[in-house]
């Protein structure tokens, strides 16, 4: 049948959804194992997730270096050999780090699982962080740090979390240039030994899972019993002392604006409704901030807002870059849009548009086994169940304009919003 592309497709409201949930198992040494068996291709993704995010490091740069240098050598193989073996089997790996967790991910063809899984074991268990590779890595990172320090966006990003949480808080610490001078590979090795122990690991497998996978995981990872589970408690957040901040950058042509406040994470009763409010304000291309500050005023190429959920906290942030000559004007328009949300109900037609957008994004984010794994991982650290997703869709459908207005009044008060400009104010 030939599609008539001049006509919009028929609109259908999304009803109740049922997502494939993982099968929960444990290896013989107690490592939690979650299996999401879906998809038609003979390939699996294996995520090894450790409580090894930046909140666990005693000094900045340590957690990031431990994560990024995982594949730079083991006790028996150098980085080149590891890369060649992965290429030979058509496999590849990724590392990811955030404030709470660090993950190592193996993508592999099922037919080569017996070869690639032991390689992953070697990388995770025997990572050696060789001195020569460490010196090259730290030198390159130091140089990159210097180059990035010339960018106003980098300056505002480094400063903002310290303002939100406190510069000494594990969620607020930012690296300084001198931190590279005191970084030593022994710090990285110690961090790896402590936080990359398999006792501190959760494994999530997604894709078309072969029958022998659990047995092979058991052979490679079920034999380790050393290590401990880490979950440190965090200090209280710093109270807001000063609302307006500026990081002066001599010769800057642009200013980077960050505005926001510490908030709650996805376990809070208002979190899902706040996501709707955020989408209206700056969470998609048709948002009010984009319509005003980009499309109408022409101050920026892009502006957005977001709500970030961490395991022990969360925050709301608006970010953009504008010419230094329109910095104050852009700030003024941001407050104008917030005040509109606090004073006027959102037209139902706009709320419907946002509902449809958010529902569509959610459905797209559950398409395929790897996407389902990402959705599951988004619940894992919070102790939430799959009814969270049903609640999310119901919230999108039912939240009212009155509730959005009330949330804007409650959580977006000007006196609670940190305002940071890196560059120049005019």
Entry summary:
42% of the residues lie in helices and 18% in strands. With 426 residues, it is of the alpha+beta class.
Topology:
Layout: E1 23-26, E2 32-37, E3 43-50, H1 62-68, H2 79-88, E4 92-97, E5 102-109, H3 113-126, H4 131-148, H5 152-165, H6 177-182, H7 185-195, E6 201-207, H8 213-221, E7 244-248, E8 254-263, H9 271-282, H10 288-296, E9 303-309, E10 314-323, H11 327-343, H12 348-364, H13 369-380, H14 387-398, H15 401-411, E11 418-423
Helix pairs in contact: 1-7, 3-8, 9-15, 10-11, 11-15
Architecture overview:
- The chain is an alpha+beta fold and 426 residues long.
- The protein has 15 helices and 11 strands.
- The strands form 2 sheets. It has a 6-stranded mixed sheet with strand order 1-2-6-3-5-4, with helices on both faces. A 5-stranded mixed sheet has the order 7-11-8-10-9, with helices on both faces.
- A hairpin with a 4-residue loop joins strand 9 (303-309) and strand 10.
- The longest helix has 18 residues, at 131-148.
- The chain is globular.
The overall pLDDT, averaged over residues, is 94
Number of helices: 15
Largest sheet: 6 strands, mixed
Shape field: globular
Label the structural class.
Answer: alpha+beta
Distance between the termini: 59 Å
Q: Quick one: how many beta strands?
A: 11
Element-by-element helix/strand order: EEEHHEEHHHHHEHEEHHEEHHHHHE
Strand content: 15-25%
Strand numbers in spatial order across the main sheet = 1-2-6-3-5-4
Helix coverage percent of residues?
40-55%
Low-confidence stretches: none
Cα gyration radius (Å): 24 Å
């Amino acid at each position: 049948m030939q599609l008539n592309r001049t006509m919009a497709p028929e609109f259908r409201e999304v009803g109740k959804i049922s997502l494939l949930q993982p099968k929960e198992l444990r290896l013989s040494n107690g490592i939690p194992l979650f299996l999401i068996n879906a998809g038609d291709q003979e390939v699996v993704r294996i995520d090894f997730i450790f409580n090894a995010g930046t909140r666990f490091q005693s000094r900045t740069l340590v957690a990031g270096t431990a994560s990024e240098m995982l594949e730079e050598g083991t006790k028996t193989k150098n980085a080149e050999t590891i890369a060649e073996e992965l290429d030979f089997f058509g496999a590849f790996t990724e590392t990811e780090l955030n404030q709470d967790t660090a993950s190592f991910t193996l993508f592999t063809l099922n037919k080569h699982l017996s070869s690639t899984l032991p390689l992953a074991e070697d990388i995770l268990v025997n990572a050696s962080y060789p001195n020569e590779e460490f010196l090259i890595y730290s030198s390159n990172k130091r140089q990159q740090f210097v180059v990035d320090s010339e960018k106003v966006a980098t300056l505002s990003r480094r400063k903002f979390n310290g303002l939100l949480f406190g510069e000494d808080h594990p969620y607020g610490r930012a690296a300084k240039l001198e931190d590279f001078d005191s970084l030593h590979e022994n710090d990285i090795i110690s961090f790896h030994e402590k936080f990359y122990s398999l006792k501190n690991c959760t494994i999530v497998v997604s894709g078309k899972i072969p029958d022998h996978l659990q047995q092979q995981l058991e052979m490679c990872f079920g034999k380790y019993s050393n290590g401990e589970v880490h979950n440190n408690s965090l200090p209280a957040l710093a109270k807001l002392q000063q609302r307006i901040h500026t990081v002066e950058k001599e010769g800057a042509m642009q200013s980077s604006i960050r505005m926001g406040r510490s908030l709650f994470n996805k376990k809070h009763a208002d979190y899902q409704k706040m996501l709707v409010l955020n989408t209206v304000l700056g969470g998609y291309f048709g948002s009010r901030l984009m319509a005003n500050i980009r499309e109408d005023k022409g101050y920026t190429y892009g502006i957005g807002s977001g709500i970030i959920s961490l395991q022990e906290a969360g925050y709301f942030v608006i970010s953009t870059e504008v010419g230094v000559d329109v910095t104050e004007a852009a700030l003024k328009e941001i407050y104008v849009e917030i005040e509109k949300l606090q004073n006027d109900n959102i037209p139902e037609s706009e709320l419907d548009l946002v509902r449809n957008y958010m529902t569509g994004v959610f459905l797209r984010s559950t398409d395929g086994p790897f996407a389902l794994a990402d959705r599951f991982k988004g619940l894992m650290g919070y102790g939430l169940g799959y009814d969270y997703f049903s609640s999310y869709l119901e919230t999108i459908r039912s939240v009212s304009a009155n509730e959005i207005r009330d949330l804007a009044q409650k959580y977006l008060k000007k006196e609670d919003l940190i305002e940071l400009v890196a560059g120049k104010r005019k």
